[in-house]
Automatic annotation (TrEMBL):
Belongs to the 4-hydroxybenzoyl-CoA thioesterase family. GO terms for molecular function: fatty acyl-CoA hydrolase activity. CDD domains: 4HBT (cd00586). InterPro entries: 4-hydroxybenzoyl-CoA_TE (IPR050563), HotDog_dom_sf (IPR029069), YbgC/YbaW (IPR006684). The keyword Nucleus does not apply. This is Uncharacterized protein. The keyword Transport does not apply. It holds the Pfam family 4HBT_2. Keywords: Hydrolase. Coiled coil: none annotated.
Amino acid sequence: MVINETTIDVRYAETDQMGVVYHANYVIWMEVGRTKLIEQLGYKYADLEKEGYLSPVLNIHVDYKTPVRYGQKAIVRTWVQEHSRVRTTYGYEIVHEDGTIAVTGQSTHTVVKKDTFRPVAFSKIAPEWDALYHEIKAEK
C-alpha cells in the first residue's frame, strides 16, 4: 500500500470563531491529499480532464475525532482503499503533528465521459494507472 503524506499549515481563514478548523475544510484537504497521491504515482488528474474525462465524487464520509486549530500543522495521509472497474475509494487520515488522529474518511469516485457523463471503465482509458491502483490498493 502506498500512502501519501501532505502537510497543511492551518490558516486563519480555515477556522471558525473558536479557532477550530471548519468541518468542510477537511474535505478540501482530502482533495489536496488525493491530488498529491496521484502526482506521487506519476499521473495528473488535470491530464484526465484534458482527455475528456471527469472523476466525480459518488460518496464522501468523514469522522471527526479531535479538532485541528489555527496555527497548527495537519498531515493528510491518503491511499487507495479499494479499486474496481468503475469505482475508486480513497482512504484518509488527517493527523496532528504528534500523530493524534483528527479526522478519518473515505471518498468514492467514478470516471465519466465529460460530454455525456456516462461511466467508463478506468482500465479502458488509463490502463497503466488502473493497473497501478490494483497493485497498491489496501484491499486484498
